[in-house]
Amino acid sequence: MPCGRPNCACANDPNRRHGPYYQLSWKEHGHTVSRRLSLEEARLYQEWIANRRQLDSLLVQMKALSREAGQWMLGHLMGEGSRTEDPTGPSQQVGPIPATKVPGYPGQILIAP
Ligand SMILES: [Zn+2]
Questions:
Q1: 9 C-alpha to center of ligand 1: Å?
Q2: What would the pLDDT profile of 31-90 be if each residue is shown by its tens digit?
Q3: Is residue 68 helix, strand or coil?
Q4: Distance, CA 13 to ligand 1 centroid (Å)?
Q5: CA distances (Å), 49 to each of 38, 59, 108, in order?
Q6: How far is the CA of 2 from the centre of ligand 1 (A)?
Q7: I need a labelling partner for 83 at 20 to 30 A (CA). Which of 3, 41, 57, 99 fits?
Q8: What are the strands of the beta sheet with 108-112, ordered from one edge?
Q9: Per-domain residue ranges for the chain?
Q10: d(Cα 16, Cα 10) in Å, to the nearest integer?
Q11: Peptide bond into 20 cis (omega under 30)
Q12: Residues flanking ion ligand 1, Cβ below 5 Å
């Protein structure tokens, strides 16, 4: 892969190619799309991707906390004598809420030698 500088020897001679190269790839409509990055762009993207992953991770933790808080509050309210169950009706049990899967951020940076 040529480095992209038009006057560089690698532009026309495959034997004079050099690295490292930085490439950002992601999925778009089921296809992998990639774009070459300069070192500076790659550093920025690495930071942005790390931020995004941290955000995703925080959201997962917030959702889990929110579920716990909801269950605790319901249990707390029910425990204060406001329970109005129909003894003849079917018992409604709330099972554990399945964990939410958050897909990993697809963007990643490949460094080719
Ligand atoms: Zn070059």
A1: 6
A2: 999 998 988 999 999 999 999 999 999 999 999 999 999 999 998 888 765 445 555 555
A3: helix
A4: 10
A5: 16, 15, 7
A6: 5
A7: 99
A8: 31-37, 21-28, 108-112
A9: 1-37, 39-111
A10: 5
A11: yes
A12: 3, 8, 10
